[in-house]
Amino acid sequence: MKAAVFAGPGKLELRDIDKPVAGEGEIVLKVGANTVCGTDGRILRGEKSKGIDVGVVLGHEIAGYVSEVGAGVEGFEVGDLVGVLPTVPCLACFYCVRGSEHLCTDSKIFGYRINGGLAEYVLIPREAMERGGVYRAAPHLTPAEVALAEPLGCVLNGAENYRTEVGDTVLIQGAGPIGLLHAQVNRLLGAEKVIVSDPSESRRAVAESMGATHTVNPLEQDLTEFVQGLTEGRGADVVIICIGRGELVNQALQAARKGGRVNAFAGFSKDALAEIDPNLVHYGELIVTGASNAGRASHEKALQLIGAGLIDVKSLHTHTYSLDDVVAGIEFAQSGEGIKVAIIPD
Ligand SMILES: [Zn+2]
Ligand SMILES: [Zn+2]
């Protein structure tokens, strides 16, 4: 079968490899879609190679149809549409034992250590099956919608940290796929005002169609003034940084009200530093949190919300590439045009 193999830093090769076979306790999926995320671009540009085994098949936003069921597997049948939590937690480390399996220090991740979804078929190994991060999705969904449960699960995990309350004003920096998911989730959580800040006019328009009540171009308008103008001078209850650029951090702290919650959701590049005015945290009693990854509960909830039509991920899927064009697809996903690219094998 065809598969996109990580061949060392900055190298992705489309190769012919053996089609996997389901052993005892395992299933094989015929990949329906693997959506591309920013991490894939960082891998392709050689900015990320740590933790990724040379020779692994890339792709961690995976959905597919069961094509083979190994002996002893219950609850899955050939033809089922399945979504996969890419992280297989160890369930034994300090964090797993304390209920934070998304912070597992000994996890195995599809597309990093376990062969991922940028291939015609993907094996779901026994440990992934046993640890329960493999879900049957509502059959009316498209595979791309099911694959997008991965980023949505991460967003839901972030929401547990920033804790939006009914009636809140929320500022989201960045109208990429992640910012658009946060916008929708915050409307569901009862935020009254969801302000999305992004320099791109077309992305701001998409944000308005996906739950943003206000949008702003931060290059043309002072963000803090804009937010204060909507909050009687206080600032936002919650600010979510969805672009990994250091200069946005102080902007986020400035736009938050006293006692507000600021979430560094985006990943920053490896050596990034951010210059901040620490008195904003001190006098403002700000609560600054982060967000990394998702556990099984977040992924399952994401699939539930997508299946129930409460979160629109279908409109996020704007472009499709075949497996033969995987490199072009990942490059296009970094261009800022379109929203989410899905790689769909022929
Ligand atoms: Zn991802
Ligand atoms: Zn663990």
Description:
29% of the residues lie in helices and 24% in strands. It is α/β, with parallel strands linked by helices and 346 residues long. It has two domains: 2-148 and 313-343, Medium-chain alcohol dehydrogenases, catalytic domain (Quinone Oxidoreductase, Chain A, domain 1); 153-290, Rossmann fold, CATH 3.40.50. Helix 8 (223-229) packs parallel to helix 9. It starts with a strand and ends with a strand. Bound molecules: zinc ion (2 copies). One zinc ion (ZN) is lined by residues 37, 39, 60-61, 150-151.
In short:
The protein has 346 residues and is α/β, with parallel strands linked by helices. It is built from 12 helices and 17 strands. The protein folds into 2 domains: 178 residues, Medium-chain alcohol dehydrogenases, catalytic domain (Quinone Oxidoreductase, Chain A, domain 1), CATH 3.90.180; 138 residues, NAD(P)-binding Rossmann-like Domain (Rossmann fold, 3-Layer(aba) Sandwich), CATH 3.40.50.
